[in-house]
Every structure is written in structure tokens, then in C-alpha cells.
Amino acid sequence: MNRRLYEKYSAEDKYGTADMLFPAAAVYLALRKRQPEFPAMDMLRTYGTKTGERMKKLIHTVTILPGAPYIIWKNIDKISDHASSEELGYTRRGLAVTETTSQVDVLSCPLHDMAKKMGMPEVCQTICAMDKVYMTGFRHIQYRRTKSVAEGDDCCDYRLWWDKAKK
Fold first, then answer.
1. What is the CATH number of the domain that holds 104?
2. Residue 2 pLDDT > 80
3. Domain presence at residue 26
4. Chain-centre distance of CA 49, in angstroms?
5. How many CA within 13 A on the CB side of residue 75?
């Protein structure tokens, strides 16, 4: 199933979404085909959350290195600009970075765009669930996202702020 997705959509995958999106889509399609009554999206969101928790632990461990959170934060302007850039397939508004905050609204992302092309935009929620958890793993950096394009909102509202007290 995954191979068929690669064959059908990889030529359109100019932003490299396949490695993250196609496995989730293949599982989703297989479950819908074999067990239509099974709550496939619930399972995939749970998988995304659990994977995000593993990534969060890794990020938390890496950012224990002396100065690591500070270096990340001092470069948050470049990180935020690149991570939501048109070069990577994103459309955004309101990128604003100050000494203590960073925010951007992502209006569209290449993962969700590819999922829509495949006819199953909901599959992107697997990645969104992962993202929402692992982003909380950075020491001294708070994170909040209350909206997601993949969940039907007008944007993904990324908000980060420096918090020296956050361990």
C-alpha cells in the first residue's frame, strides 16, 4: 500500500513529505479497507502523540547540555523563519520575533497539502499530534499551539516564549 502511494504521488512530492505522511496514509487506507468500523484516525492520532512523547524526551535530554536552550533561543528568529518558509512549502502570516517571544501563523503546510491531494487530509493530524507534543520538550522554551489547519482551523498558531524557569 505504501509503495503504491509513493508510485502515485512521489512525483508531486517536491517538499519531501512522503517519508512522514505516506506510512500513516498507508495504515489509514488499509484499516479503512479491512475494518471500516475501526476508528483509524483515533489510532493514528494516538500514534502521533506517543511518537511525539518519545521525541519530546530526546529533545529534553539534548537541551540539558549547558547553553543549548540559550543557543536555540538566540537563533529562534532564523529557526522560525526557515521552519515556516515558502522554500519548504509553507504559507504563513504574522512572523514576529522579539527578545522573549516568537510567533507565526501557518496558513498552509506541504504535509496537509499532500494529504489533500491524496484525498485524505485528516491523515496529516498524525503529524500534527506529534508536533504538538514534541515541541514542549525544549528546556526554557514554552510552546503553545491551539489551532491546526489539518483539524479545520484557519491556521496553525505557533507561539513560543523564553522561560528561564522551565526545566
1. 3.30.1380
2. no
3. yes
4. 11
5. 8
In a domain, 108, yes or no: yes
CB 44 within 8 A of CB 51: no
131 with 75: CB under 8 angstroms? no
Q: Tell me if 167 is assigned to some domain.
A: no
CB atoms within 10 A of CB 74: 13
Q: Which domain, by its residues, includes 68?
A: 2-162
DSSP state letters, 87-104: GGT-EEEEEEE-SSEEEE
108-159 residue pLDDT tens: 999 999 999 999 999 999 999 999 999 999 999 999 999 999 999 999 999 9
The C-alpha cell 484525498 sits at 119
